[in-house]
Design brief:
8 strands; 3 domains; 10 helices; alpha+beta; elongated; Endonuclease I-creI; 4-stranded antiparallel sheet; 46% helix
Length: 252
């Protein structure tokens, strides 16, 4: 016998396009059981979890979506009764913690939001049965190990509020730093400083969502490598940095 949480996780693997053989080998659940759950349990789960409706505040949702893709997760309650939305926010940025909590409250005003302290960070957390419908990118395993794509309704929200989406991504996995360099001027070595934005994520799909949105906003960017791997997106051109300063700004 398997509890409902185990069945949901197995069905989520199948929903990613995995074969029954692959899911069976990974979970130890027989293919016959998986086929049975697909025909009997999956429809019941959909009936038990009706469409929760659109976010109450789409402006706040675009920001929260960026935070979720960077440092968030949706995980089932151990008893299978609902889901936790958790966003990890570094303690170094107390303003970010408050903005995250405020965004969740605006997206779902009726829900409670609480803070869980972890080493070096605070988990901004909210519990509800419907979080998977609002964040359909959730699933077992790490985000960079599975395909991440926006649903059409999510893309419409991002297109309507692109700066909020960019802001959420940078506030989760990005930063604004001051670079410096030296130049020889009139025989004298002078130091020059200039601001720069970085966004770092190991998921090719999430980086692409970021750069596609930057392209639509007219922000110039370059791809940098770390140990030969293109994890970093840099914005350093003066006009583009000015745009990000206007709409995003440094974390606080």
């Amino acid at each position: 016998m398997y509890d409902i949480s185990t069945r949901k996780r197995a069905l989520a693997l199948v929903a990613q396009g995995r074969s029954l053989n692959s899911v069976s080998r990974e979970t130890g659940i027989s293919r016959a059981a998986l086929r049975s759950w697909q025909s009997r349990i999956e429809p019941l789960l959909r009936m038990a979890s009706p469409d929760p409706g659109p976010p109450a505040d789409e402006h706040a949702y675009a920001y929260l979506l960026g935070l979720y893709l960077g440092d968030g997760c949706v995980s089932p309650h151990p008893r299978g009764t609902g889901y936790y939305l958790r966003i990890a926010c570094a303690d170094a940025w107390p303003g970010l913690i408050e903005q995250c909590r405020d965004a969740i409250k605006k997206v779902r005003p009726a829900l409670g939001v609480y803070l869980m302290q972890r080493e070096g960070c605070t988990m901004v957390t909210s519990y509800n049965r419907r979080w998977p419908a609002l964040f359909p990118q959730h699933g077992p395993g790490k985000k960079h190990e599975r395909r991440i794509a926006l649903e059409p309704w999510q893309q419409e929200i991002v297109d309507a509020h692109p700066w909020q989406f960019i802001r959420g991504l940078i506030h989760s996995d990005g930063c604004r730093i001051t670079n410096w360099t030296t130049r020889l001027v009139g025989g004298e070595c002078k130091r020059y400083e200039y601001p720069r934005y970085f966004f770092t994520n190991v998921s090719d799909d999430i980086r692409r969502l970021y750069t596609d949105t930057l392209d639509k906003l007219g922000v110039e960017w370059t791809q940098c490598t770390r140990n030969g791997t293109p994890f970093n997106i840099s914005v350093a051109k003066k006009a583009s940095v000015a745009l990000l300063d206007t709409h995003v700004g440094p974390k606080y």
